[in-house]
Records
---
Amino acid sequence: MADIILGIESSCDDTSAAVIRDGWLLSNVIASQDVHKAYGGVVPELASRAHELNIVPVVSEAVARAGIKTSDLTAIAFTRGPGLLGSLLVGTSFAKALGLALDIPIVMVNHLQGHLLADFIRVPGGEVREPEFPYLCLLVSGGNSQIVRVDSPLEYTILGQTIDDAVGEAFDKCSKMMGLGYPGGPVIDRLAAQGDPKRFKFAKPHIPGLDYSFSGVKTSLLYFVRDEIAKDPDFMEKNKEDICASFQKTLIDILMDKLVKAARQTGIRDITIGGGVSANSGLRQRILQEGEKRGWRTFLPEFKFTTDNAAMIAIAGYYHYLAGDRTPLDVAPVSRVSDF
């Protein structure tokens, strides 16, 4: 009998539901929230209200696209955390209610683990190419920047992580600083493609081990733009492509220096990336180049699996279900990784 898992993701501002049968993706539906653009960032209260409006139609659409009935479901996987507590509460509560109504188990999933396993989502008609354990994952998003050793679907160790801002946060804050809008990552990536990445230099932190820091890079950009605009009020508009290209290159250099170091220390040659920033074209190109240079097998998730999505929650939940993991109905969502 097939194991059919419904995945529910509601950690931030995307409401998503997906259906997986024995590891193969049947559907993946995402409802995004445009309301936050006006505020330059996600407003938690608005996000949770939007999830309440979206959760029922999104789940219904995912089930319909999968060509199944809710009675066919084996289990429900949901994001317990980390994320925005109000948003997580909507997904968690819905999973509990539906699981209770269908009399099937629910399985909680760490949102970050979903990103780690995105390469194991099998799409009908697509190429099946998966990393071998153990592998390293560069997990980069708006809330996290980590190098993770993945020993099995359910076993992983964080080798290094940011000690201050995440790289996605650096993209967003600096985009806002330059008046380029939100979310900043896609805007900077688009402008960077038209600029000279070697024109300007920004400070790089010297952090021991495999940990990251991005606060100094932001400060370096802030002072640079401030000083240049004082000389020429039109400096930003005249040079925004080169600024974005140089800034993006600096962030990618920081990420890749530590990833190369981690691969050398562990001897692991299967390398993956995950999280929202893994959609960045400069980072994707750079990791492929480093892979060719260093003999890595590199794995890039499809763009639709880089941002928050329920397919990655469903695949992680599938492995938890196979391992016999079940979640009690009195479980509460958590906002931080340390609470998991």
---
Amino acid sequence: MAKDDKKVPAQTSSDGDVAAFLTKVAATPAPARGDGPGRLIFAMDATASRQPTWDRATHIQAQMFQETAALGGLALQVAFYRGFGEFRVSSWQTDARRVVKLMTSVFCLAGKTQIAKVLRHAVNEAKAGKVNALVFVGDCMEEDVDALGALAGELGLLGVPAFIFHEGEDAIAAFAFQQIARLSGGACCRFDSASPTALRDLLSAVAVYAAGGRKALEALAGRRGGEVLRLTHQLKGG
């Protein structure tokens, strides 16, 4: 494994990475507006390696849903894996309080990654009904990257971009996450425990965009400032 690590350049976090990620969110085709709210699958790696930063991350993740309350709309499905093959998915939720309760009730348990199950589930959901985006938060990858790429490509054909949030600096995970994002038409950005505000802004941007499109994202920038405001300046310049 150490030998393979040398072949993949380590990914580092920077303001440029965050700005590029937000720009990619804004460049994603606006979600089709139907009779119902936007639909977002939110998947989490809940294996033991994420335990040190788990509590802070889950609270930040829960906050993103609250940004969409006034948009009339985001239906969120929470998914996570952990332990010995455990993979769970909630029903579609539109109640922010219930979503927050779901996210904050999950705890970590040692086990291997199950990213393929996440992607396969997203493909099946998209075939059954419109899904505007998939969000995945994880720190490592222990699977066949080519198999993950094939599933990500299916998501791309179905119009479901995967927005990947990479915690930490694992080079193998960075490479795989970038491939999944590229093949699905999404984006990947790294974060760490020292950048909770960046994670909050990135997650909120994806959630708001899935619920209300570019105009809603620009409105969020006006309220939030920071990285999201920087994004709107780029959009206006373009």
---
Amino acid sequence: MKVAVLDIKGKVTGKEIDLSDDIFGIEPNEHAIYLDVKQYLANQRQGTHKSKERAEVAYSTRKIKKQKGTGTARAGSRKSPVFVGGGRVFGPKPRDYSFKLNKNTKRLARKSALSLAAKNNGIVVLENFEFNQPKTKDFKAILKALDIEDKKTIFVLEGPNNNVYLSARNLTAVNTVIGSSISTYNIMNAQKIVFLEGALEEFQANLSK
């Protein structure tokens, strides 16, 4: 599959780049996508939730009223879960939500997500560009030229680029990542995926291994 390379003004440069059918043209495996996105979201959870159970509530252990003759249910402790302020029954405890996922499954998930994006015309290849200094206005001009200023977009860079990152940081619908750290979640969460020309070549080489 060939895709035209655009410049930062949204014009066709005359160059074309091949999108590998092994990455952008496979039959998507939706279950692999589900597992990879599930793992990504699970890894974001801190798991620090905690509530006090009966043994941890700071109340006296004395019997709060006599056993019989009150006309109400017997009660032996202020810590009982039936009282306001008492311990919670089976409350949450700190835990680790992360789980292992096979490397080949993760690779299949990324290829499947990229194939879906390519099928929906969500892949854009942009000529390599640089900013002399961080300038959000200049970055927004690129988005406008590509007609994606109102779309959730992910820019895939060849490597760390501080000026480009800082220029896009304040734009809520734009995310910048380097090719080696792009996740299935990033791909599925974006309406447009913009690959810089140099980043795409390296990305395809790494994902084909």
